[in-house]
Design a protein that fits this description.
The complex is a heterodimer of chains A (120) and B (296). With 120 residues, chain A is mainly alpha-helical. Helix content of chain A is 62%, strand content 7%. Classes of the chains: A mainly alpha (120), B alpha/beta (296). At the A-B interface, helix 2, helix 3 and helix 4 of A face helix 6 and helix 10 of B.
């Protein structure tokens, strides 16, 4: 957990990451609030807030008396949101840092092309 | 949510010292509170007042809607684990655990047994032969297994090693999830407990200076590091919580920044870093309190 952002937001993101990676397929049950709280050593109310954030967005849904499940279509929706955020969160700072170092856009594009194979 | 504790205009004066100074706050049911502050800030006095172990000089205290003083109905629903709990020297830990159910109607003997094994408490050794950490373990076990609807832990872990503290946090969270109750945890190890807390009360020189949800406090301050000129121009007009400088560099802590302000700082070449709850409280209680009158 990092200090700069609310923990419930980070819990929601962890669940989103698992949905995007396929670790939590659609229509499977997600761990309970108390399980999240115990695993991450956080207050159960905070964990509950993170889960509820995703319920409000329709990513998770509640089956009464059973638990929380991943909604159908959740993965595609999350990937769509993340792609939009990618531009703001990653490309923006990347370009800003490149400008600071005097790297031209052309050089930057070349770096990205040549880096394609080396990442992993 | 209903209030378990309601305090209005509470003061406690000793001969020359005002330990608690016109304090008002509410404690909600089934919430884990952190009561934080420096040594001598008034934390223990406040907890003694709430558990009827001290008389208020003025003001009003309601615990479960009633005054806690000499009130068995309130006190049997309250568990107060003190920093240095004394037990009779010739007692053995097993006597402590055998007598606890007399005071706590919700005592869970099975849970206590599991905790005794977790903390490796020697049941039949005389109290005066136990180490400081083992004595603290006894207090922690009594506090957890009593399952009192209102439980106070006042620096419960003097001498407890890192493993035992982690066991305490884990068992507290697990048991709280299954048996919700109100817990007020006073500690100096703020970084260790910050994720457990739902609400934070900070007391300084007898006054409550922070009364906020832990999630609101998280990210409520940012430290900006960069050249002095750059930092100064960025923070101009903002409330500065803390400031350090060395040569041409400055490090300044200000309140919450929105994404646009963060971007602006990044464009100015300033480094932003989050401020942990512990750092925030150190900064808030390290300066004259008048600069930080409660803003809420």
């Amino acid at each position: 957990m990092d200090e700069s952002r609310p923990i419930f937001v980070q819990i929601a993101e962890l669940i989103e990451n698992d949905i995007i990676s396929g670790g939590l397929p659609e229509e499977t049950q997600v761990p309970s609030t108390n399980e999240f709280a115990a695993f991450h050593r956080i207050n159960p109310a905070t964990a509950g807030k993170g889960v509820n954030l995703l319920v409000d967005e329709g990513i998770l849904y509640k089956k009464r008396g059973i638990g929380m499940f991943v909604a159908t279509g959740a993965r595609d929706r999350l990937i769509g949101q993340r792609r939009q955020r990618f531009e703001n969160d990653y490309v923006g700072p990347l370009v800003a840092e490149a400008d600071k170092l005097g790297i031209t856009r052309g050089q930057l594009a070349e770096m990205i092309r040549s880096g394609e194979g080396s990442a992993e | 949510m209903s209030a378990v504790v309601e305090v209005r205009g509470l003061s406690k004066n000793y001969r020359t010292v005002t330990a608690v100074d016109e304090v008002s706050f509410t404690v909600e049911e089934n919430t884990i509170y952190g009561l934080l502050g420096r040594n001598g800030a008034g934390k223990t006095t406040l907890m003694q007042l709430l558990t009827g172990q001290e008389f208020a000089s003025s003001g009003e205290i309601r615990v479960f809607g009633e005054s806690p003083v000499e009130n068995a109905g309130v006190l049997e629903r309250t568990s107060f684990i003190k920093e240095s709990q004394k037990y009779p020297d010739d007692f053995q830990p097993k006597h402590v655990f055998a007598s606890a159910p007399w005071f706590f109607p919700d005592w869970d003997a099975g849970f206590a047994e599991r905790l005794i094994a977790d903390f490796r408490v020697p049941l039949k050794r005389r109290i005066k032969k136990l180490s400081r950490g083992q004595l603290s373990s006894i207090g922690v076990i009594v506090g957890l297994a009593s399952r009192a609807p209102l439980t106070f832990f006042d620096e419960p872990y003097l001498g407890l090693d890192a493993v035992a503290r982690q066991i305490f946090y884990d068992r507290l969270l697990e048991d709280y999830a299954e048996h919700p109750r109100t817990v007020i945890l006073s500690t100096h190890l703020i970084d260790e407990v910050s994720n457990l807390l739902e609400h934070v009360l900070v007391i300084d020189e007898g006054r409550i200076i922070v009364d906020q949800a832990a999630e609101e406090l998280r990210g409520s301050a940012t430290t900006i590091v960069g050249t002095r000129a750059g930092v100064d121009s960025f923070v101009a007009g903002r409330e500065v919580l803390h400031r350090d400088q060395i040569g041409g560099l400055a490090s300044v802590t200000v309140g919450r920044l929105d994404p646009l302000e963060r971007q602006e700082a990044a464009e100015l070449g300033l480094e932003l870093s989050p401020v942990s709850l512990q750092q925030l409280i150190v900064q808030k209680t390290n300066v004259p309190a008048k600069e930080f009158e409660v803003k809420s």
